[in-house]
Amino acid sequence: MFLIYHELGQETHPYSYYCGTQQFEEHLRLAAELSRAGDRRFYLLEVTFDDGHLSQYSHAEPLLAQYNVSATFFVTAGWISSRKEYMQWSSLRELHSRGHSVQSHTWSHPMLTHCSDAELEKELSYSRKLIEDNVGARVDAISIPNGRWNDRVLRACVAAGYSRVFTSDSWWGEKEQSGARVFGRINVPQSMTSQRLKMLARGAGWKLLHDGLSYSKHLLRQMIGDHLYQSLWRMVAHADSTK
């Protein structure tokens, strides 16, 4: 079961997907316990990060090392070494050297379904090449920004050299589509306690309920359109325009 984290820190924050370091440590402790136990009744917890925010390096990486958990960092390549609150290429090289995976979150974080063919090619290909050139490792996976994707986007991802595509649709699971292996993930909100996360990892009722709510949001987005949904989401999440 793939989890998505964004920003981390020790202060209170209005953004609903901000994760406190104590909360994150509790999640890692649970992930390590489930991995050691090997209990097939539970999903293993896989940690991923989107965007490339600096706090992922300064706050998350020391805890990942403490609990011996490897993570995947999906970074918005155009923001690296150019935005104050985001990581440097040297930080990403260090993460790679410590056993973590550095993959793509596009070049500039657009809604890919709204991109022209030329824009799609730049967002996908340029990002992959820039990360490979600066980190020195293969990039074959991408996470979809803003949760917007379709068959056209998947085909473009495959053409750009990606074999794995990660979404924010928890109900999706894992399946082959349009030549790519597509994975669903769970966005981790501030309200996600370790107890609730363990119930989700157990599957069955709690996971079905969570996935049902996630799918309902997907249907709402299709009904009202991307831009209106995005505006409503920002009001609810108190997120700024880069989220």
Describe what this molecule looks like in 3D.
This protein has 243 residues and is an alpha/beta fold. The protein has one domain (2-237): Glycoside hydrolase/deacetylase (TIM Barrel, Alpha-Beta Barrel). Helix content is 44%, strand content 16%. The chain contains 8 helices and 11 strands. It has helices spanning 21-37, 54-66, 89-97, 117-135, 151-159, 194-201, 204-224, 226-237, and strands spanning 2-5, 8-9, 19-20, 46-51, 71-75, 101-104, 141-143, 164-166, 174-177, 180-183, 185-187. Strand 9 (174-177) and strand 10 (180-183) form a beta hairpin.
Helix content: 40-55%
Number of strands: 11
Q: What is the chain-wise order of helices and strands? A: EEEHEHEHEHEHEEEEHHH
Biggest beta sheet attributes? 5 strands, parallel
Domains counted in the coordinates: how many?
A: 1
Low-pLDDT sequence parts:
239-243
Sequence of strands across the biggest β-sheet: 6-5-4-1-11
Kindly summarize this structure in a few lines:
This protein is of the alpha/beta class. 44% of the residues lie in helices and 16% in strands. The strands form three sheets. The chain has a five-stranded parallel sheet with strand order 6-5-4-1-11. It has a four-stranded mixed sheet with strand order 7-8-10-9, covered by helices on one side.
Keywords:
44% helix; alpha/beta; globular; TIM Barrel; 243 residues; 8 helices; 11 strands; four-stranded mixed β-sheet
